[in-house]
Amino acid sequence: MDGPAPPSQPAPARPGGGPPAPGATAPGATARAHRRRGLREWVVDIGLFTVAVLYGLAWAIALEEDPEVSDVALIREQTACVLACAALWLRRRWPVGLALGLIPLSSYATLADGAQFVALFTVAVHRPAKVAAPVGTAVVVAQALYFGLYLLLAGNPDAPDDDMLWIVGFTAITVLAVLGWGMMVRHRRQLVVSLRERAVRAEAEAQLRAEQAQMRAREQIAREMHDVLGHRLSLLSVQAGALEYRPDAPPEEVARAAAVIRGSAHQALQDLREVIGVLRAPVGELPQPTLADVRSLVAESVEAGTPVTLEEAVAGRAPDTVGRTAYRIVQEGLTNARRHAPGAAVRVVLRGAAGDGLEVEVRNGAAPAHGPGRPGSSAPSPDPVAAPAPTAGGGVGAGAGVGAPGGGQGLIGLAERVSLAGGRLTHGPDGEGGFRLAAWLPWPV
């Protein structure tokens, strides 16, 4: 087989300093590949050069035994063979030009046919068939024209020599064989290159799919972390803020508030373990909330001091995916209400049925200027942990957690979750100083 395909360039490093892309070649490996290819090219070139020389020697021996061939003619044949074989070292740079340039020599000198066949083979390997076929045809036609001209000049055009006819026929058959062999080599090379490119593409696509799967897993974990821990930590923040605001509370209330904080912290740790379990077990093996768990979620918020009312008008049992998504919507709504509207009443509405879909609405009013646990209020707080600490402008202190930093990632993740479930999500001010979070989720029959 002739020389290999052009060497591939080293692939640049991937963005971020990561490893090269699939199929990339390190500079050291490329240099070693260059050395291997150079050695192989030399072996192939020397081998083909030797074949052309041996072909010429075989014909030279045969011509020496022919008494009709003079010494001068034999020297001319040998000289043409040497020139043709020497020109083979240019076959890689100018394959077509060399093959066409050797036609006069090979037509005149039979000893140069070996070099001509090597040049034709090179053309068939490195050029498409539409180029190689005309060059091969030119070799056979030139051979026939030379012998026809020879007979015409000899004065006996009607009596072609049998040896001449045999040489033309042999040349035609050999040209077809050489072109066929070269085209087969070319086709095999193209097939190998195609398979390599396909393998590289398949590896790159597999890596891309793996990266996308990792990204989806990370997004899922981020949503779970925000939904679960954000809810628990907002409760902790509100309860701790109440203790900070009322350092003179009776010991019984302080002990009760501390117990609530401890219970919430313990539950937050349990939730964190469940979220981390996403990394260790399939999603189907993890406990997931359902629509029925919304009641306990509301009760938990009421116990923490947030006035929440729940209205349910759900006919039948909702699918697990729908129930889980509805639970996360209510959870996010309650968390945001505690953060941004402490003390405001919250209304949670669930209604729907199979075929109609499930509607989820969480609406909170404006944060009261004077309410339970706020400055200037004579009404006692229903629970000491529900009283947020005041700040300038009616906000809450750092210890309260209400108004704690939130970059809006919760609503973004919630919108993605609802979209994946095939539903719609809307949120924004309700025009009365409050905030409304509403969603519709498909509920198949």
Automatic annotation (TrEMBL):
Residues 1-31, 364-392 are annotated as: Disordered. Its EC number is 2.7.13.3. GO terms for molecular function: ATP binding; phosphorelay sensor kinase activity; protein dimerization activity. Keywords: ATP-binding, Kinase, Membrane, Nucleotide-binding, Phosphoprotein, Transferase, Transmembrane, Transmembrane helix, Two-component regulatory system. Residues 365-380 have a biased composition (Low complexity). It catalyses: ATP + protein L-histidine = ADP + protein N-phospho-L-histidine. Residues 1-22 have a biased composition (Pro residues). Coiled coil: none annotated. Pfam families: HisKA_3 (PF07730). Residues 218-282 form the Signal transduction histidine kinase subgroup 3 dimerisation and phosphoacceptor domain. It comes from the Bacteria. GO terms for cellular component: membrane. The chain crosses the membrane at residues 42-62, 98-124, 131-153, 165-185. This is histidine kinase.
